[in-house]
Specification:
The mean pLDDT is 95. 25% of the residues are buried. A 7-stranded mixed beta sheet has the order 1-2-3-4-5-7-6. A hairpin with a 2-residue loop joins strand 3 and strand 4. With 146 residues, the chain is α+β, with helices and mostly antiparallel strands.
């Protein structure tokens, strides 16, 4: 198992390492995004990681392999490097969020069926769907609650 730690000191080095995890994760799971769209989104990731209320990082051998951000009981982000997928780490992060950070809601791209299935498997149910994402792009979002 990876070790989980809540991070308060979000150094530029850590944020850079987490952006690298984000990029590997997105390339492995967000097949609906073009290279140009990934490049367009990437500059906003450091700000999101630095600004989220609670940041939990999963490490193996002192290297970040996944992370989640939680704000007011809402899972704002959960990303795993492809090397960490399928090993229970997503479950470990989300269960930590539910039991320690009162996570009861999240939003997921409908076009990421593995993530949708993962959240459903852990008890989340869709209560709302939008045709567009928050930036107005044609990527439907599912809003889910426990």
């Amino acid at each position: 198992m990876a070790s989980l730690s809540t991070v308060s000191d979000r150094t530029p080095e850590l944020i850079e390492r987490l952006v690298a995890v984000w990029e590997r994760s997105v390339r492995a799971t967000h097949e609906f995004l073009s290279e140009a769209e990934i490049a367009e989104i990437k500059p906003f990731v450091p700000q999101a990681v630095a600004g989220v209320e609670t940041l939990v990082v999963a490490e193996r051998d002192d290297e970040p392999v996944g992370f989640m951000g939680v704000q007011d009981g809402r899972l704002e982000m959960l990303f795993l490097g492809p090397e960490a997928r399928g090993r229970g780490l997503g479950r470990q992060l989300l269960e930590h969020g539910i039991s320690h950070l009162d996570v009861t809601e999240l939003t997921v791209n409908e076009q990421n069926p593995q993530a949708v299935g993962f959240y459903e498997h852990l008890g989340f149910k869709t209560y709302r769907r939008t045709e567009l994402d928050e930036e107005g792009r044609p990527y439907p979002l599912l809003y889910m609650r426990l």
